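Reopening this ticket.

The earlier resolution said the output was attached, but the attachment link was broken on my side. Pasting everything inline this time so it's all in one place.
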Amino acid sequence: MILPRDGEVELIERAFGAGEAASWFARLRDGIDWRQEELRIMGRMVAVPRLTAWYGDHGYRYSGVDHPPRKLTDDLETLRRKAEDLSGASLNSVLANFYRSGDDAMGWHADNERELGGQPVIVSLSFGGARRFSLKHRHEPALRVDIELAGGSCLVMRGATQTYWLHRIARTKKAVDPRINLTFRRILPH
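Inline output:
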């Protein structure tokens, strides 16, 4: 396991072969209804620094944005089943993120919304360019773990991870290829 304590994170480096991962990247890039969302930060609207899409049995609200339920595409359904096989978890929804360049990012956060339950399993599939995924402990910020998520990899977070750890994809000045990340989860009906 990757975390020293207070959670469980597993990296499956080659969940998909290189050719298969490249094919999935192209299919997802062209087949997902990507959106540029805006958030209100300190009274003004700011563009989210990546493209996103939500698909799942139930709606989802995070960062003050409502995402209505939307049926998984055939490709997302295929990848949902693969994510379930890799993790052993039952999953019904996915947040898709398209990081177009090193300027696109996701700030420190935990996937700890009420509709995810107390100890959610988050299964993250990466396609395209590699990016650094960082985790830091909520109570000991000096306790940090950095992981390079390459195309074709799968990261599984479970147990108390979302309670005790924050995670992010930071901006980078380094030249990076575009990356698509699918984070599958189980949304509980409200």
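Reporter confirms the inline version is readable. Residues 115 and 127 are 27 Å apart (CA to CA). The chain has one domain: 8-185.
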